[in-house]
Structures are given as structure tokens and as C-alpha cells.
Amino acid sequence: MKHFSKLISDIEITNKTNDKIAALVSYFSSAIDKDKLWLIAIFTGKRPRRPVKTSLMKQWCIEISNIPEWLFLESYSTVGDLGETIALLLPKPTHKIDKSFSKWMEDIIAVRTKSDEEKMQFIKNAWSGLDTQERLIFNKLIGGSFRIGVSKKTLVNALAKYSNIEANQLMHSIIGNWNINEISFSQLLRGEHINYDNSKPYPFCLAYALEKELDELGDINDWQIEYKWDGIRGQIVKRNSEIFIWSRGEELVTTQFPELVTAVSKLEGDFVIDGEILALKENSILLFNDLQKRLNRKNITKKVLEEVPIGFYAYDLIEWNNKDVREQALSYRRDLLEQLFSAQKDNKVLSISETIKVNTWKELSPLRDNARLKDSEGLMLKQKNSPYHTGRKKGDWWKWKVDPLTIDAVLIYAQKGSGRRSAHYTDYTFAVKKDDGLVTVAKAYSGLTNEEILEVSRFVKKNAIEKFGPVRTVKPELVFEIAFEGIALSKRHKSGVALRFPRISRWRKDKPVEEIDTIESVKQLIYSPN
Description:
Layout: H1 2-12, H2 17-30, H3 33-43, H4 54-65, H5 69-79, H6 82-89, H7 101-110, H8 116-128, H9 132-143, H10 152-163, H11 167-175, H12 185-190, H13 196-199, E1 205-206, E2 208-209, E3 223-227, E4 232-239, E5 242-247, H14 258-265, E6 271-281, E7 284-285, H15 288-291, H16 302-307, E8 310-320, E9 323-324, H17 330-342, E10 350-352, H18 364-369, E11 378-383, E12 391-392, E13 397-401, E14 405-416, E15 425-434, E16 437-444, H19 450-463, E17 464-468, E18 471-474, E19 479-484, E20 486-489, E21 497-500, E22 503-507, H20 519-527
Parallel strand pairs: 1-12, 2-13, 8-10
Antiparallel strand pairs: 3-11, 4-5, 4-6, 6-7, 6-8, 8-9, 11-13, 14-15, 14-18, 14-19, 15-16, 17-18, 19-22, 20-21
């Protein structure tokens, strides 16, 4: 546990990806194989079920620490994390337990079937034999709240650096179905439980934000123009009757979109298609928040399938009958894509992203300005003679997004952040006017400078009205401009609307709270987004 605990500390003290990769490589280079397997399992969501109720852990901590419950709750509201609160309140360890990370995980799994008395003895003994940082990790593992700021991509890049195995192959291997008790670390890295050749994707071709005047792009007839859709960029791979779906984040997401697998299986031949996964219902694109309900689920229930049906807008065809066609011109690849889709009929799941036909660049600006009316976030401009590049190459593909929407709102709730931000109030909830009161409309965590965060934190401490655990209600005096990418009606939100990617655009120190937006003016953006 000491080795694993140090790794977590090294990861949490930095926000630099390369430093996190270096810490992971160091761990893989020195840990025993079983510990490495458990790290991969934990970091990829293969956590065991929580064996102990956190309410019992709280109760036992209060008893051991000999403090009143009110003091525990006050400490919890200050720290903001149950596992960390317990680790800090417990007395110093009385002895040292020296067990490997994997042995701890095996013991945690085994305790799930024990009685509450046996669970208490196990946990109390663990607490008395671990230091504060190790207790914190133990509490999060046994309480089911273990979260770490490492993406699957970062983990895979560390494994690739350690093993010299291709990152995409490693991603497929660790995301696939494997049992920690039936595979060795080397077997997992080599992917002995998968057929990687069938599933191998390509690096995505990406676009730069448009930084030229349209007239500088030359003849408009040399460009393929499409709407820019706001979903999950993905590649669908079909080889030898096997189908795999990869996200742009290099994650294998096949099982999360079973209707795509069914639809693709009806297409003839082998191919790799690049496109956008979207939540589509009754010919309308749902919110990205709805699409997120389909992500990172082990099982897609019938209810989720009905509430958030999925569609795929195909952009490009980059492999055709086992031949890599990325070096061919976009116009050629588009012809192949249309040929592939021409044979399908009444397919409501798969479609080709439509191209926009205009005669002059001047005609394009109004289409871009009104893109939100088509549930789009702007336009894509692609040279018809361009190959499918690896990554970004300036000049061939441009994205021309609409300007963000903005509203003025007042800060009403604040909460301390986590990790390096845990000492300051950095998580904010904003409201707009409704009738004679206020209604919450958005949460935002970014957009302020460090100096502004400190200033807001001082305001919160002086002007807190109520406490709800770690959340503080504050006097509604600070006005901020909130920017966001889209807006839609929502029954799940008290305000009746949901904002897409809200963030703080600027602090409106020049504006009194009486001049913030009303919920009616916010809703008007749905119907008049410009």
C-alpha cells in the first residue's frame, strides 16, 4: 500500500500530464505484477463493489476519535471529503501493516460477505496500521469513492512508454473483458485475450479554428462544407465480421452503443468510418448531457435505449475493403462513403453528414450564424483534395464555430474545490431572476484568474448565509457573465433549461444584481439564439 499511496500522492500534486506519466512508469517499473494489474483495474473503472456502508465508517471513526458527531460533521463540511475527514481525525497508528496493494484489494473484496462486527474489526485494524495518506487511499477504496485525475489515455500512454507497445493496442486490451484472477500482467499488455488486428483504429484527422477571411480560402467550389455536430467523434471499424467503435479519446466504446453495432452489421464489406455519435430522437439532436447517460456504463438498459437513442453521422471513409485510403483525396473518399451507404434503406441510425451547397462565401456567413437552429455548433470547411491527415495540419480542414451565448447571472452558492483547489471556493452556482426571486441556472468551475478566485473566496467567507455540508449560500451580490455553447429546455432542471458547457466569461463588477438576466430572457435564447 505504501508504494501505491506514494504514486497517488505524486499524481495529485501535479496537473502536468507528463509528470503523471512519469510517476506511472516508475510504478510499473518497480511494482509486483499483481499490483500493476490492480492499478489498471482501478483506473479503468473495474472497482469491486463497496463492501461497507460509509455511515458505519463514520460511526466507527467518531467512536475511535472520541469526538461528538457535530464536530465530525463540521470537519466534514470543511474538508469536503468523507475518506479524507476520517483519515485526518483518527489517532496516530499504533503499529505498521506492510501488505501489498493487491493483497489489500483481495482482503477488501473478501470482507464484503462478513458480518458488521467482522467488518468493523478489519477496518479498525487497518486504520491503526496505516499512516494518514495510506488511510485516505484505504478509505476511498473500501468506501467506493476512489477517484483519481488520470484519464484512460494517460494511463495507456504510460503503459506504452513502459512497454513499447502501441497505445491503441493497449487501450483495446485494458478496456476489453479480462479477469484479474485469470490473466497475467504481461498477457494483458500483449493482448492475448483480444484480436487487435481486427479492431485497430487510425489516428483522427483534426481541424484548426478558422483564422482567415473566407475570401482568402480561394474558390468555394474547392471546399466541402458541412455542419459541425456536437457529439462524440468516433471511428467505426468493421473487419472480418467484427465491429468496434472507438472514441476520439482512444477509448473502445462498442458496448455502449449496441444499436450502432446492429446497424453497421447490415452494411456490406469491411471498412473504417469516421463520424459523430449523437443522441437522436424524432429527428432532433438531444443535449450532450443526454448523450453522457450512455457513457461509461457496463450495461445499457432498455430504459436508457428508449430515452437516449443513438445515431451516427458519417464524415469520412478511411479504409475500404482492407485498403487504407487516407492518402486519397477527400472527394474520392466521399464517393466511396456514398457508395457504401447507397445500398442501405430505411436506416434511422446511420446517415451521411450532409454537405452544404452555396455559390459564394458571402452566402455562408448566415448559415454559420444560424447553425444552432439546426442543433449544430458551426461549420466545417474541408479541402476536397485533402488527405486524411494524422492529427492537425493547418490549411486543409477548418472549424468555424458560432460565438458562445452569454447571460449575466449572480453567484448564490459556492463550494471549495478538490486537490490543489481545496483551500479556496472555486465551484460556483449561478442564478437569474424569476418572478420576485432567483432560480439556479448553471454551475461553473472555470474562467477566473487565481487572483479573482482568492477575492471570491474572501467574499464567500465574509458573506456566507447558510451551510449545507461543504456548500455555502452567499449573499446574491457578485454578478458574472456566463458563456455557454448551447441551451435547451429541460424537465430535469428547476429553471427549466440546461446550458451546454457553461463557464465564467468575466466578472461583471460594473453591473448591479438588479440588472442580471431573467429566466424569460434566458429561455428566449432557445428560440432566438443570435
